[in-house]
Amino acid sequence: MLYAIKRKMYSIVIPVYNSENSLRELYERISHTFTDDLKTDYEIIFVDDSSKDNSYRVLKELKKQDSEHIRLLQLARNYGQHCALLCGFHYVQGDYIVTLDDDLQHPPEEIPKLIKKMSEDEENIDVVMGCYREKKHSFIRNLGTYAIKRVSDYIFKQPKDFSFTSFRLMKKYVVEAMVEDFEVRYPRVGYLLLDVTNKIVNVTVEHSSRKYGTSGYSFSMLVRSFCKNITNNSMLPLLAVQNMGMLSTLLSILLAIYYLYKYMYVGVSITGWTTLVLLMLLFSGLILFSIGIIGHYLIQILDEAKRKPNYVIRAKEL
């Protein structure tokens, strides 16, 4: 008896925000890659993150053009790229899931490289991430990204020669684990992946220049995102506060011994006024800084306790 060999199916999940000019080209290039080059089954899940332009209208037109492969989700407000991805992950049907950005800086023609890398050692690879030969961002953003990466490498013990990007190919079980097992208020897909598996590899891909509009990530947004990543995924700030407290206590004891010695054997004068003022300013600043860090953690604990949803779906066309 002959059995039909089931072809692998791929789900491409794309968060969309203010990208009306790039969506048609993005769809056409993905369709060409999977239909003509890879010749395999696929679906494209567009998640509109409450765009301010006509992105969703363009997506609906594409859906009418190709209802077989396109699935649409629209969020009620802007929740951010990672929440939009998790929303799309709930609806994937493919054996493998690809994520890429909506701005054409991740060339769809590079997807076969991810698939080829996965197929070379599928037993030992769960996730393939594209790393770029050269990032076509502005100098300021590249500088900020580099600095944040170096600090992240140290804090999260990431391999120095490994790159985390949003251009990924993942096995379905990895995506299912992220969706079912992790409920966090401010999810970050990259760090969730590290909690699921360590079988992650890089493959070198091209990174294209932005053709339309400007990036939604300013330098200040990258810094804020980095701070959230630290407080959501690391206890380092609290440990730093603890260590500062221990050092301050030790310094206070040493100064107490020093001034007690001067009082008993040397005598004291008014000259210690400057030292006293400087110490008061130093320790007052440390105390307020420590309270601020602890307060930030308390705010996040309250956010988690409220159990607010990471996203609300306004409309869907599946």
What does this structure look like?
With 318 residues, the protein is α/β, with parallel strands linked by helices. It is built from ten helices and eight strands. Strands 7-5-6-4-1-2-3-8 form an eight-stranded mixed sheet, sandwiched between helices. β2, α2 and β3 form a beta-alpha-beta unit. The two termini are 36 Å apart.
How is the topology of this model organized?
Elements: E1 9-16, H1 23-38, E2 41-48, H2 55-65, E3 70-75, H3 81-89, E4 96-99, H4 111-120, E5 127-132, H5 139-155, E6 168-171, H6 172-181, H7 189-196, E7 200-205, H8 219-233, H9 236-266, H10 273-306, E8 313-317
Parallel strand pairs: 1-2, 1-4, 2-3, 5-7
Antiparallel strand pairs: 3-8, 4-6, 5-6
Helix pairs in contact: 5-8, 6-7, 9-10
Short descriptors:
318 residues, alpha/beta, 8-stranded mixed β-sheet, elongated
Roughly how much helix do the residues carry, as a percent range?
40-55%
Mean pLDDT: 80
Largest sheet: 8 strands, mixed
Topology, number of strands = 8
What spatial order of strands do you see in the largest sheet? Answer: 7-5-6-4-1-2-3-8
What's the short version?
The chain has 318 residues and is an alpha/beta fold. 51% of the residues lie in helices and 15% in strands.
